[in-house]
């Protein structure tokens, strides 16, 4: 009796161990328990063999004819309905697996993507799909025509990356010939403000030197394109933020530079065009020896460096009793001596100097008289007629002051003018005009005048 009890205990233990091992193994079955197919669709059925050897011969059959056709493990949907397909191990008929297949010939007639047509950069949106008829699955495969503009995830999540137009495609997994498309325009975010800063120069734009403004548009994904304008192009122009000065703005004048975004947000900055700071002043003359005669003039030139500094200067003479200088740099000799002529830049501190010697005039040497540019010593004039002879004293730098006397006041009248001596015949006869230098009375010139009758 004890032997029988022991045997039963061992048997139960074996059964218990065997069951435990069986539960740890995969059973013989199809990968899917249920499948949906469309009429005309072909599909390969896949098995999980579990403890069954894959070398075993498998027999496939259906629970009902006219819904699917079998060719081994390849099933083709031929009619509407629900059918069970069974896979049986031929050698072990009790080892079976079953899958339920629903076959439908419904056709997808419409596929529509729902969502916004416009997005701003860095925004996201979740697209959804509607099918017609609505009971057909809306599972789709999502793709973007340009992932650099916007990407789309497998679940329809769209992320906008840069401005442009992108097409999001949704391909039906139920009917691969059906594709819905949605065009989305990616826009910049609206401009909130603009900040202006100089990358070169500053509000005082130096003549002949450009200054550059940088416009930073906020928020980060707003349109960075800017339109630049100048309130007075006569003084300064602006292009792409580069300010080009035209001329110095007078005191009280200003130029407003405006940066305007594409959506109308503006920022302004006030500038002035100024001269460059004077570095030096050079005073020059065209003469090799800078001299001026008494009562004569020479002109000096002042050049302020750099060239874009204010070229206006103020002139000064160290001794106006020797020589004077006017606002145009014209120096006039007053008396013999040496004087320093100074040109002072507009800043009042930068100066340039040049020494000028004032010398006496040369002594008169000869008196030259001409009529019609021909030198003469006598002239013939009809009664009641006149001629004007020019009178100059040589050398040309000598004083030109002279006096004259006449041998007869009845034969002709003589008048001094800015051209010389005007002689008018009064009666027939001869006379002598004596011209004498006021500086040197020994320098004289006589002109013999013949007055003849007036021709009828």
Explain what this protein looks like in three dimensions.
The protein has a five-stranded antiparallel sheet, with no helix packed on it. Strands 2-9-8-5 form a four-stranded mixed sheet, with no helix packed on it. Strands 11-18-17-14 form a four-stranded mixed sheet, with no helix packed on it. 5% of the residues lie in helices and 53% in strands. The protein is built from one helix and 44 strands. It folds into five domains: 29-104, Immunoglobulin-like (Sandwich), CATH 2.60.40.1080; 110-187, Immunoglobulin-like; 193-274, Immunoglobulin-like; 280-359, Immunoglobulin-like (Sandwich), CATH 2.60.40.1080; 366-452, Sandwich (Immunoglobulin-like). Residues 1-24 have low confidence and may be disordered. The chain is rod-shaped, with a radius of gyration of 58 Å. The chain is mainly beta.
């Amino acid at each position: 009796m004890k032997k029988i009890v022991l045997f039963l205990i061992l048997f139960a233990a074996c059964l218990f161990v065997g069951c435990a091992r069986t539960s740890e193994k995969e059973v013989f079955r199809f990968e899917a328990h249920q499948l949906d197919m469309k009429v005309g669709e072909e599909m390969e059925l896949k098995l999980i063999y579990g403890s069954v050897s894959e070398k075993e011969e498998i027999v496939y059959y259906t629970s009902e004819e006219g819904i699917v056709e079998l060719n081994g493990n390849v099933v083709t949907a031929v009619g509407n309905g629900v059918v069970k397909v069974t896979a049986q191990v031929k050698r072990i008929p009790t080892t079976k697996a079953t899958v339920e297949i629903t076959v439908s010939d419904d056709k997808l007639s419409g596929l529509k993507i729902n969502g916004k047509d416009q997005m701003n950069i860095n925004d996201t949106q979740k697209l959804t799909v509607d099918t017609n008829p609505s009971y057909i699955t809306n599972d789709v495969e999502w793709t973007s025509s340009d992932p650099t503009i916007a990407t789309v995830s497998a679940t329809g999540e769209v992320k906008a990356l840069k401005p442009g137009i992108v097409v999001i495609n949704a391909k039906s997994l139920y009917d691969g010939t059906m594709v819905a498309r949605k065009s989305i325009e990616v826009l910049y975010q609206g401009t909130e403000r603009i900040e202006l800063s100089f990358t070169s120069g500053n509000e005082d734009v130096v003549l002949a030197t450009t200054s550059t403004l940088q416009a930073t548009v906020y928020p980060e994904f707003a349109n960075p394109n800017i339109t630049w304008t100048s309130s007075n192009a006569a003084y300064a122009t602006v292009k792409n933020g580069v300010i080009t000065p035209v001329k110095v703005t007078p005191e009280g004048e200003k130029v407003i530079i405006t940066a305007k975004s594409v959506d109308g947000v503006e920022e302004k900055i006030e500038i002035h065009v100024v001269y460059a700071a004077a570095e030096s002043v050079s005073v020059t003359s065209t003469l090799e020896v800078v001299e001026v005669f008494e009562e004569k003039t020479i002109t000096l030139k002042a050049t302020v460096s750099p060239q874009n500094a204010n070229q206006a200067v103020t002139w000064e003479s160290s001794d106006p009793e020797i020589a004077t200088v006017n606002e145009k740099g014209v120096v006039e000799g007053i008396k013999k001596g040496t004087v320093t002529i100074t040109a002072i830049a507009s800043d009042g501190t930068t100066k340039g100097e040049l020494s000028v010697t004032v010398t006496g005039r040369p002594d008169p040497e000869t008196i030259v008289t001409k009529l019609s540019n021909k030198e003469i010593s006598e002239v013939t004039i009809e009664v009641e007629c006149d001629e004007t002879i020019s009178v100059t004293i040589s050398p040309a730098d000598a004083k030109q002051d002279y006096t004259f006397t006449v041998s007869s006041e009845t034969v002709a009248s003589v008048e001094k003018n800015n051209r010389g001596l005007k002689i008018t015949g009064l009666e027939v006869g001869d006379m002598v005009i004596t011209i004498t230098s006021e500086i040197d009375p020994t320098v004289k010139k006589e002109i013999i005048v013949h007055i003849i009758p007036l021709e009828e």
